[in-house]
Amino acid sequence: MAVRTYLQAISDGLREEMRRDERVFVIGEDVGVYGGAFKVTQGFQSEFGPWRVLDSPLAETAIVGACTGASMMGMRPVAEMQFADFVSCAWDHLVTVAAKQHYRAGSPLPFVVRLPSGGGFSGGPFHSQNPESSFAHIPGLKIVCPSTPEDAKGLLVEAIRDPNPVLYFEHKHLYRRIKGEVPEGDWTIPFGEARVHRAGSDLTIVTWGAMVHTADEAAARAAERDGTSVEVLDLRTITPWDRTAVLSSVARTAKLLVLHEDTRTAGFGAEIAATVAEEAFELLDAPILRVAAPDTPVPFSPPLEKAFIPQVDDVLRAIDRLASY
Amino acid sequence: MVAREAAAVATPAEARAAGLDQEDLLLIYRHLLVTRGIEERGHILYRQGKIPGSFYTGRGNEAGAVGVGFAMGLDDVGCPIQRDMGVHIARGTEPWRIFAQYLGRVDGFARGRDGNVHMADFRLGLVAMVSHLPAMAPVAVGAALAFRLRNQPRVAVAWSGDGATSRGDWHEALNFAGVRQLPVVFVIDNNGFAYSTPNALEFPSGRLADRATGYGFEGVVVDGTDVLAVHREARRAIEKAREGGGPTLLEIVTLRMEGHAVHDDAFYVPKGLHEAWAKRDPIERYRAFLAEHVPGFAEERDDAIRLEVKQLLNEAVRRADESPLPDPATVLDGVYVDPAELDAPHHK
């Protein structure tokens, strides 16, 4: 197995699917000549040509709308939002047309929108958001949030082959920071299967995306400090999400912390907490806790941004509170 | 450069030059009658309380819709809107399934999951509209992009109303199509009113078709009461796109002889305009053309076609009414796609 960065794994998955399936094409702002704002499609245009790696006008609805139309005609488009934040400009199309077209009209729409998301480097209010929760409320869309290079590749290939519109949130702060072994060859990771990132027995942290690594660091420090054994469960996909894995982990640990980088109110953590409260109330030894960003826009200046994004210490405090029960 | 004003089609010879023989002329007439007949019967069913929700018609727009629908090729794709029943009819949509759609039955195209004219027979290359107009304009552009990527000689047609041209997605669609010179035709059903809002409060330019210049392609204005002129201009635009000539913006100046929907009495339409529209009824205009130019039309063909259409629609309503309502237990079905559907024949 080769060691790849998270970003390289995304590029690999996309490139291999384009080689394997001529229906797959890439569309987005600056994805062609420039290779994408984060260079995920660097070199693609010289390999696949200017139409299969298509530089679009600065028009997110046109990009996503084109994916709907092209996928309806049997293509497998992969769109890039330059930043996940800009998907707000295509919200109407995704929610109004793409999410509902199969339910009401029976048309499969096999396309993927890649969304470089997340903060951690002073991107400010418009280049740092994690808008996955708002889409989780929309039936008809699938939502993927990988945290490791292996998952990034396997879930992207799965997303491209999935017959539904898939929003693929790739966390910018993981692009070059996170490396890992990635199997070679043609393989995929099915949606809706959580992964135990770190096994533990005293409490469960359910999380996804970049927060998997924050949770892992907090769990390591808790173990080192006083032997608290924390299980970190990486959901990997939000729609569908693996209720069974969450409930079975909670059945063993009896304590649950939900952690996400998106803001707190009506974030997806609330859905997980409510489900566990409904399904496993009698198994719990402590209240379900949430650690999430506060309900503010993502601030720009480093000390403010640090106060916004959940930090290892925030997670440790929640671990301590759960441990006190 | 401003939009070209298309001339009327005054003789069968001019229609022949646009590829229509006498049987085509009569078929177009039949399509017009079926189009209006479906909506008239739907309106009655609605008033009888048999159709849930609201009910929209395209009365006055039949010629625009049939003219463009008839000009499309077999493998072309279209995204019609709520005044464009004629597109569905010209493409071969079965009327009984349209009534089943109105009635919320399982044989409606949306299987009861969506209502009224939010429907399409995808096997006929039609895409079901949504309420947020012109949301399907970028979809048509995407279809055209797929045709371009595969070098297929196919064309996409996107409809919008005059009101929908105020929206950003309309601009995004036309701009993208112009940049890439994609095989797509943009049709505007300009009936003068977006719900109650007149053209003068909707856009400041003289003609919507003039905007085509800014997108790098041709704009054409055509009289929507002249089905043969609409057909000729649509055919030109579609064949131009098919041959690599890029998009066209076709503004059909049409009529809205009824309110936005059946609940709307259109009191805001200036006094006398409805009467003026009635005098320009596109079906009456075409009937007069056929009576003048097609031997035997006024004497027998007209009556024979009307009778045939009446019988067709009687049977369609009867058959639709036999279609069952959806089983509530199926409410969860179809939010996501079964992967096996992807390789179904209609998904070409």
In words, what does this structure look like?
The complex is a heterodimer of chains A (325) and B (348). Chain A is α/β, with parallel strands linked by helices. Chain A has twelve helices and 14 strands. Chain A has two domains: 2-182, Rossmann fold; 195-323, Rossmann fold (3-Layer(aba) Sandwich), CATH 3.40.50.920. Chain A has helices at residues 6-20, 44-52, 60-72, 91-98, 101-105, 132-136, 149-161, 211-226, 243-253, 268-280, 302-308, 312-323, and strands at residues 2-5, 24-28, 53-55, 76-80, 112-117, 142-144, 166-171, 179-182, 195-198, 203-207, 230-234, 237-239, 256-263, 289-293. In chain A, helix 8 packs across helix 12. The mean pLDDT of chain A is 97. Chain B has one domain (4-324): Rossmann fold (3-Layer(aba) Sandwich). Chain B has helices at residues 12-17, 22-47, 62-71, 85-91, 95-102, 137-149, 168-180, 199-202, 212-215, 227-242, 273-279, 282-293, 297-322; strands spanning 4-5, 77-79, 156-161, 184-190, 193-194, 197-198, 218-223, 248-253. In chain B, the strands form two sheets. A six-stranded parallel beta sheet of chain B has the order 1-7-8-4-3-2, sandwiched between helices. In chain B, strand 7 (218-223), helix 10 (227-242) and strand 8 form a beta-alpha-beta unit. Chain B is globular and about 55 Å long.
Keywords:
heterodimer, A: 325 residues, alpha/beta, Rossmann fold, 2 domains, seven-stranded mixed β-sheet, five-stranded mixed β-sheet, 14 strands, globular, B: 348 residues, six-stranded parallel β-sheet, two-stranded antiparallel ribbon, 8 strands, 2-oxoisovalerate dehydrogenase subunit alpha (chain B), branched-chain 2-oxo acid dehydrogenase activity (chain B), DH_E1 (chain B), magnesium ion binding (chain B)
CATH class of the largest domain in chain A: Alpha Beta
Oligomer: heterodimer
The average pLDDT value of chain B, as a whole number, equals: 95
Portion of residues in beta strands of chain B equals: 5-15%
CATH superfamily of chain B: Thiamin diphosphate (ThDP)-binding fold, Pyr/PP domains
**Total strands of chain A:** 14
| Total number of distinct structural domains of chain A | 2
- Write out the strand line-up for the largest beta sheet of chain B, numbering strands in chain order: 1-7-8-4-3-2
CATH H-tier superfamily of the largest domain in chain A: Thiamin diphosphate (ThDP)-binding fold, Pyr/PP domains
Estimate percent helicity of chain A: 25-40%
What would you call the structural class of chain A?
alpha/beta
Question: SSE string of chain B, helix = H, strand = E?
Answer: EHHHEHHHEHEEEHHEHEHHH
> What's the average pLDDT of chain A?
97
The second-level CATH architecture of chain B is 3-Layer(aba) Sandwich
- Low-pLDDT parts of chain B are none
User: Per the principal axes of the C-alpha atoms, what is the gross shape of chain A?
Assistant: globular
Instruction: Return the string of H and E elements of chain A.
Output: EHEHEHEHHEHEHEEEEHEEHEHEHH
